[in-house]
Amino acid sequence: MSAARRCSPPRAMAGLFIWHLKKTGIRQVPCQFVHLCREANDRLITFQYFNFLKRMYVTQYNKDLSQRAKPKSDSVASPFCESQQLDQEKKVIHKIIPISPVHQPLSKTSNINELREVKLAAEIGGSATPLRAESKEERQWKEMKLRLDDLPGILARLSKIKLTALVVCTASAGFAMAPVPFDLTCFLLASLGTGLASCAANSINQFFEVPFDSNMNRTKNRPLVRGQISPLLAVCFAASCGVPGIALLTLGVNPLTGALGAFNIFLYTCCYTPMKRMSIANTWVGAVVGAIPPVMGWTAATGSLDAGALLLGGILYSWQFPHFNALSWGLREDYSRGGYCMMSVTHPGLCRRVALRHCVALIGLSTVAPVLNITTWTFPIISLPINLYISYLGFRFYRDADRSSSRKLFFCSLWHLPMLLLVMFSCKKSLLEKEEKGDLHGGSHGRAMEIRLP
After folding, report:
1. Residues contacting residue 247 through CB under 8 Å, at least 6 positions apart
2. Shortest CA distance to 118 belongs to which of 93, 92, 139?
3. Where are the beta strands (DSSP E) in 249-358?
4. Among 9, 243, 279, 303, which is most buried by a count of CB atoms within 10 Å?
5. Which residue ranges in the chain fall short of pLDDT 70?
6. Do 319 and 361 form a contact (C-beta atoms < 8 A)?
7. How far is CA 151 from CA 146, 148, 155, in A?
8. Please, what is the Cα angle at 73 between 68 and 79, to 5 degrees?
9. Is 301 exposed, middle or buried (CB count within 10 Å of its CB: 0-12, 13-18, 19+)?
10. How far is 301 from 441, CA to CA, in rounded Å?
């Protein structure tokens, strides 16, 4: 049976049609779809192949539209042919202008002339970037020199003078609330010793946190971060404040107050400072640190730990949570950048709840004061409006959780504590009332004993 008979009629017709097109010259046909029929039974028309045919048609019949490939650059020569390549290339030598040393002072006229030359060169070169009108000394790295005139301000920032003043005020409030006659010498020694201990603790805290403070906008201008003083000078300043401060409290006041001051320095520098990067429990430890100064003032006056000292410490302890949590809420980005583990960063809901709880706790602590015979019953009544107001702001902070509510709570805490302590001092029970009450209790006890005796 011949090959023509074995082929089906449609297949034979397709073959004859392709043979006829080849004979008539397929290259002159504008549309080259017929090329796909060479293997019509084995290949399918693809989009890529269609684009290839289209490009072939364009380049063949429209010479103007043909793309000219950019000649490739010579391949990178091997290291062994480096000597031959250097001979062929042109050598370009740039002249480096010598820069004057940093320590040499520059006159104002030379600075002005240099700025004019730079501006003229920029105009000639057609550069559109504006030039900053800075002197050459400001653009160069230079060693910061310590001046004696700047030293008091630097040491004040190193010791956090505002925080130290708050610590001394709370210690003074504890001394004033003690139920003993006022001793001016003891008061001055206790205030000075507490202030020196606070300066030492704050200086050591900044010494440990230099790498972390440099990442925060709030603390990047501290003296140790900027290099205004050396770490050795900061440690020497801390030692010169801490040792005399603890000695004054121990020898000039009483050993109990000195022990509390030394314990507070240890708690702040060795517990609170490293815990800031480890756990959110640092907030509670820091609240204990802030609650000890009024206890120190009470022990400086009485020489013993009484219920009144613990009550003052409790008021300061609860006040710090709305104060610090509201402050840290607006600094969450800074604390996160610095690597500190704060409630406002890791547990924002807990941060707001704790602030609200301790705002309400201030109302209860104010009510306990007359129960412990420290103040009269007018104190919880007079202090109720300001305690209700800070509790309202704490509730707003808990509900809204925004910067506006946290800022209002923070600024309220700044005037709330002084006003609360001032009202507490004005409602303090006088020493005569306590003595009369003690005499009445003693007299009734004596009469009872006399009745019992035959």
Report:
1. 193, 258
2. 139
3. none
4. 303
5. 1-51, 54-144, 431-454
6. no
7. 7, 5, 6
8. 165
9. buried
10. 24
Task: Please compute Rg for the chain using Cα positions.
Answer: 42
User: Phi and psi of 229, rounded to 5°?
Assistant: -135, 160
Geometric angle at alpha carbon 423, from 173 and 405, rounded to 5°: 95
CA 228 from chain centre, in angstroms, equals 21
Length of the chain as a residue count: 454
Helices (H) and strands (E) in the chain, counts: 23, 0
- The rounded distance, in Å, linking the Cα atoms of 178 and 171 is 11
User: Collapsing DSSP states into helix, strand and coil, what is residue 442?
Assistant: helix
Rounded CA separation 223/276 (Å):
21
List Cβ neighbours of 333 (8 Å cut-off, separation of 6 or more). Answer: none
Q: What is the pLDDT of residues 21-34, one digit of tens each?
A: 555 544 444 444 44
Listed residue (113, 115, 104) closest to 142, CA to CA: 104
Alpha-carbon gap, residue 337 to 27, rounded angstroms = 70
Measure CA 50 to chain center: 62
Cα distance between residue 122 and residue 6, in whole Å: 87
Please, are residues 289 and 264 in contact by the beta-carbon 8 Å criterion? yes
Burial class (CB in 10 A: 0-12, 13-18, 19+), 36: middle
pLDDT at res. 433: 61
- Predicted confidence at residue 102, as pLDDT, reads 46
CA quadruple 271, 272, 276, 282: dihedral sign: positive
| Bridge partner list, 375 | 428
Per-residue pLDDT tens for 417-431? Answer: 999 999 999 999 876
The pLDDT score that the predictor gives to residue 215 is 85
Cross-strand pairs, 428: 375
Give the span between the Cα atoms of 77 and 259, in whole angstroms: 77
Q: What is the pTM of this model?
A: 0.65
Whole-angstrom distance, CA of residue 313 vs CA of residue 294 = 6
Please give the C-alpha separations between residue 333 and each of 23, 30, 154, 338, 362, in angstroms, as whole numbers.
80, 68, 27, 9, 30
pLDDT of amino acid 281: 93
CA distance 45 to 52: 11
Rounded Cα distance, 437 and 454, in Å: 28
DSSP string, 347-413: -HHHHHHHHHHHHHHHHHHHHHHHHTTSB-THHHHHSHHHHHHHHHHHHHHHHH-SHHHHHHHHHHH
Residue type, 24: T
